[in-house]
UniProtKB/TrEMBL annotation, chain A:
NCBIfam families for the chain: ccoS
Domain of life of the native organism: Bacteria
InterPro entries (UniProt xref): Cyt_oxidase_maturation_cbb3
Pfam families, A to Z: FixS
Name of the protein: Cytochrome oxidase maturation protein
UniProtKB/TrEMBL annotation, chain B:
This protein's name: Nitrogen fixation protein FixI
Gene source species: Bradyrhizobium jicamae
Keyword Mitochondrion among record annotations: no
CDD domains: HMA
Chief location category: membrane
Localization per Swiss-Prot or TrEMBL: Cell membrane; Membrane
Lineage: Bacteria, Pseudomonadati, Pseudomonadota, Alphaproteobacteria, Hyphomicrobiales
Keywords per UniProt: ATP-binding, Cell membrane, Membrane, Metal-binding, Nucleotide-binding, Translocase, Transmembrane, Transmembrane helix
Origin: domain of life: Bacteria
Matches recorded under SUPFAM superfamilies: Calcium ATPase, transduction domain A, Calcium ATPase, transmembrane domain M, HAD-like, HMA, heavy metal-associated domain
GO biological process: metal ion transport
């Protein structure tokens, strides 16, 4: 049963880390826009050429 | 006079050389809109942050201080196809956001603690029947206590605070038995651990907290979502005033930036957003939102105008006054205050249940203790068993029974276009027996409409519409709207007090008073048939047409009323408008009870009279004159086009041109009340099974944990049934 000496603190530390992570994400505003966050995950990254058409459409 | 727009009122200075503004945006509903807006705004130089919140439909913007005018963002969004307006978070909303994040923090802590303690409890439960030595069990109990005590102290705050407030006011609510249960459970568990006993209830106490917090959080987040939408709608109504910042220089400013003593310009076709007195100009004004009277009144220097007054014909200069005594508005505010105070404190279903619940449970626990002591058990054992009765009856399911239904139902209402203003509105709406409607703007659409469109040739109608776009007059605006015209006629000019005129291929076209267009005879024919209508004439060369314009009933008003009547709900009209107009509407809708020319005070008298007869009244109204009656009624509803005062007073707000949301809301709330009652019975049923076990001393921590989670899940599943089949009135 000496293994408890490791396992119990380990379990508590992992739990506390999870809680800390949750509180951090909450403070960071990650729950402010649950609907938008879902869409952002699948939105395309902004391509480099995206801004060009408005500024430089005449070049083509 | 070209007005500049001044939005500096809404800009917050962040201190680090950055400015911040929040904009409410209309029509953002997908990922495409989100990236389009963010890219479009980030492309502006010096913008450091442009982030869309899809849940609240808002954009947060930050830029280097002094480099950009906020109006620029609004223009940019308009170019992208979105209507936007600066948004000022109201205090109530800020407080709710703060509360929501606190509840979520509590929920996180409670859930973390509950899971970790459960991890420690399972070995104890299984160890009790196998080979766990008492020292190991004590060690696990102490570890549980180490996690449970601080976690409960933190995450129990919402309950402890509310219970304390209630007790100090010598009342009781559901949080009192919850708090007692949790504190007793934890206290007893600590004592038991000290005495090396077998059972500790740390897990049950924390699990209870986690379940209850989840219910509260869901309930609150739904309410917050509706409030955010209501806030956006208020911002998008764009209540601005045109203020004189020099003798002839004007600037468009938000209402909040206008102070008493300022002078504002009220153009024809504009609705005043302030109270004040006319100092210059002659015009006709429409006070229907304030008095319900639809006939225009003459206004000149000295005439008082109120927020909501519509200016019809000439430009007015108005000196803004603080709401002074003796004005109509002050009278309405006084009536409103009285009505709010007199509103009998409705006792929510949950509180009524807890009034019954606490004495029963606490007496049962006391009797259990005395019974066991009389039976020969030691005082220690008797107390432990009594506390286990309290723990097992701790109103887990009872605490969830109502919030769970409320969350599901307010979500369903939200989707049909009904926003909840007050938390207990659902319960009150469910037992409505009579609906009292205001006419103008409630049974009828808020905007005027052309009634004889079919009599006018399509091409003529469209030409008239294009000409009408040049005018601000509400009657002309109705013609423009009805014709669907989009391009204004080039070179059209307004003739003050007469109408507008222009030229099409060398032929003069005119739109305005019948005399201005030489169409008096045609106009008189129409007025003879329909004396309530307003007329506007159109002349193109020698062809003349007259449009009849009047308030039109909401498209589904008749069917909505019929549904209400069929469901056994009485319907009545209470209007400040003149008798013929009210009679006409009542006849069209088949409503037999109606009163016309009613003052705000009379409206309250009527509501009070109904109340004395014991009738539960739903008041539906939009005008400022309805606000006191809205507050006096058992429950109240406003269309979203209502004046600010009415909307703030009403318990529910419905969106759109249809009356169906009113009927749907009653249907939903009836279903909700049914489910709430069922849930309470389910909770009571659970207690009647579990309590004998506890009294017999068989409620081990394992039984307590299983019983609690089982009953909670049952109640939540039952609440989910509110989603379906609530559309018809039951």
């Amino acid at each position: 049963m000496e293994v408890l000496v490791f396992l119990v603190p380990l379990a508590l530390t992992l739990g506390a880390l999870g809680l800390a992570g949750f509180l951090w994400s909450l403070k960071n505003g990650q729950y402010d826009d649950l609907e938008g966050a879902g869409w952002r995950a699948i939105a395309d990254d902004e391509p480099a050429s995206e801004r060009a058409p408005s500024a430089g459409s005449g070049r083509h | 006079m070209q007005a500049t727009r001044d939005f500096s009122h809404y800009v917050r200075h962040l201190g680090s050389g950055l400015s911040h503004i929040d904009l409410a945006v209309e029509g953002v509903n997908c990922a495409g809109c989100m990236s389009k807006i963010e890219r479009g705004l980030s492309a502006l130089p010096d913008v450091t942050l442009a982030r869309v919140n899809l849940t609240d439909r808002r954009v947060a913007l930050e830029w280097k201080e002094g480099t950009l005018d906020p109006a620029r963002f609004i223009d940019r969004l308009a170019e992208l196809g979105y209507k936007a307006y600066p948004f000022e978070p109201v205090r109530a909303e800020a407080i709710e956001t703060e509360q929501a994040s606190f509840l979520l923090r509590c929920l996180g802590v409670a859930a973390f603690a509950a899971m970790n303690i459960m991890m420690l409890s399972i070995p104890v439960w299984s160890g009790n029947v196998s080979d766990m030595i008492p020292e190991q069990r004590d060690f696990f109990h102490w570890l549980s206590a180490l996690i449970a005590l601080p976690a409960a102290a933190y995450s129990g705050q919402p309950f402890f605070r509310s219970a304390w407030t209630a007790l100090r006011a010598r009342r009781t609510n559901m949080d009192v038995p919850i708090s007692i249960g949790i504190v007793m459970a934890l206290g007893m568990s600590v004592m038991e651990t000290l005495h090396h006993a077998e059972h500790a209830y740390f897990d049950a106490a924390l699990m209870l907290l986690a379940f209850l917090l989840a219910g509260r959080y869901l309930d609150q987040s739904m309410r917050r979502k509706t409030r955010a939408v209501a806030g956006n709608l208020a911002a998008l109504k764009a209540e601005t005033a045109t203020k004189f910042i020099g003798t002839d220089e004007i600037s468009v400013v938000p209402i909040a930036a206008v102070q008493a003593g300022d002078i504002v310009l009220l153009r024809p076709g504009e609705r005043s957003a302030v109270d004040g007195n006319v100092i210059e100009g002659q015009s006709k004004i429409d006070q229907s939102l304030i008095t319900g009277e639809t006939l225009p009144v003459k206004a000149g220097p000295g005439t008082a105008v109120y927020a909501g007054t519509l200016n019809l014909s000439g430009a007015l200069r108005v000196r803004v006054s603080a709401a002074s005594e003796g004005t109509l508005l002050a009278e309405i505010s006084r009536l409103l205050d009285n009505a709010v105070q007199a509103r009998s404190r409705y006792v929510q279903l949950a509180d009524r249940a807890s009034r019954l619940y606490s004495p029963v449970v606490h007496t049962a626990a006391l009797l259990t203790m005395l019974g066991w002591a009389a039976y020969g058990a030691t005082w220690h054992d008797a107390i432990v068993i009594a506390i286990s009765v309290l723990i097992i009856t701790c109103p887990c399911a009872l605490g969830l029974a109502i919030p769970a239904v409320q969350t599901v139902v307010s979500g369903a209402m939200f989707r049909t276009g009904v926003l909840l203003n007050s938390g207990d509105a659902i319960e009150r709406l469910a037992d409505v027996e009579r609906v009292v409607f205001d006419k103008t703007g409630t049974l009828t659409l808020p905007e005027l409409d052309v009634t004889n469109a079919v009599d006018v040739p399509r091409d003529v109608f469209e030409l008239a519409g294009r000409l009408a776009l040049a005018s601000h007059h509400p009657v002309a605006a109705a013609v423009a709207r009805a014709s669907g015209a989009r391009t204004p006629l080039a070179g059209a000019e307004e003739v003050a007090g007469q109408g507008v005129r222009g030229f099409v291929r060398g032929l003069e076209v005119r739109l305005g008073r019948p005399s201005f267009c030489g169409a008096d005879q045609l106009a008189n024919e129409i007025l003879h048939r329909d004396p309530e209508a307003s007329v506007v004439a159109f002349r193109h060369g020698e062809t003349r047409h007259v449009f009849a314009v009047r308030q039109r009933l909401r498209p589904d008003a008749a069917s909505a009323i019929a549904t209400l009547v069929k469901a056994g709900i009485e319907v009545e009209i209470l209007s400040g408008d003149r008798e013929p107009a009210v009679r006409h509407a009542a006849e069209q809708l088949g409503i037999h009870e109606w009163r016309a020319g009613v003052t705000p005070a009379d409206k309250i008298v009527r509501i009070e009279e109904l109340k004395r007869r014991g009738v539960k009244v739903l008041m539906v109204g939009d005008g400022m004159n309805d606000a006191p009656a809205l507050a006096a009624a058992h429950v109240s509803m406003s269309p979203v086009s209502a004046t600010h005062l009415s909307q703030a007073t009403a318990d529910l707000v419905f969106l759109g041109d249809h009356l169906a949301p009113v009927v749907a809301a009653i249907g939903f709330s009836r279903k909700a009340l049914l489910l709430m009652r069922q849930n309470l019975w389910l909770a009571a049923g659970y207690n009647s099974l579990a309590v004998p076990l506890a009294i017999a001393g068989l409620a081990t921590p394992l039984v307590a944990a299983a019983a609690m989670s089982g009953s909670s899940v049952l109640v939540i599943l039952n609440a989910l049934r509110a989603h379906s089949g609530a559309r018809e009135l039951c």
